[in-house]
Amino acid sequence: MGRKRAFPWRWRLAAFVLLLAALGGMYLWWQAQHWMPSRADFPKQGVLVGASDGAVDFRALAATGTDFAYLEASTGESGRDARLGPNLRAVQESGLPYGVLHSYDPCIPADRQAANFVTIVPRDASMLPPAIALEKLAQDCATPVTEAAVESELTTFLNQIEGHTGQSAILKLGDAFQLRYGISGRIERNLWLDRAYFQPDYGGRPWALWTANPRLASEASDEAVRWVVVQP
Question: How many domains does the chain have?
């Protein structure tokens, strides 16, 4: 009997510590799912959505204070986001300012990607500036592409889509792409950088947009959305 009751307080303490750890983990998870930067610091905040986010209620987003939305639109020379059509209609009906995003593929010639973009994206002066996601590296291409060619083709692509939209594009620059090509120092466009919860600094110069929470829980979407803020 004595052995069974020798250290009961230790087991109780261990259980209590485990409970606290579990509760702390749940709290941190909840905070991460619902965190967004202070409106006092960043008054304009919005979302980036695409097919991976499922159905999105843009009216609900607008009603809860979302200021703008970017829609994933095109990829490479032939890719089209599966929900672009319904998302485009819904965001227009909601009255939210919106723009579109093209995922750039350095393995594909600029002309073919620009043709895909202008076919999919309507010419509308009321839209926000187009955003270009730069994430894929040319080292993954089946046919080698030099660094000079990456910059040259990207410049050609930007000139063509900017002629279509009438606005300068925003470079949604991945950290690996910037590290490899130093594009922010070679092409003068506003930057959109990504880093969860902490302001990014890998762009080499100030950013204009920041994906602050890549998985913000929202009742307006089937899945978590990417929460984006604008530099004031």
Answer: 2
pTM given for the model: 0.86
Rounded CA-CA distance 185/190 in Å is 11
15 confidence band (pLDDT: 50, 70, 90)? low
Mark whether 20 and 95 lie in a shared domain: no
pLDDT digits (tens, 9 = 90+) for 185-223: 999 999 999 999 999 999 999 999 999 999 998 888 888
Q: Which two tokens stand for residue 72?
A: 């994933």
Same domain, yes or no: 16 and 102: no
Structure tokens of 79?
């890719």
State mean pLDDT over 88-112: 97
- Of 35-49, 115-129, 214-228, the least confident: 214-228
- What is the DSSP-derived secondary structure letter of residue 130? P
Which domain does 2 fall in, by range?
1-34
> Does one domain contain both 21 and 104?
no
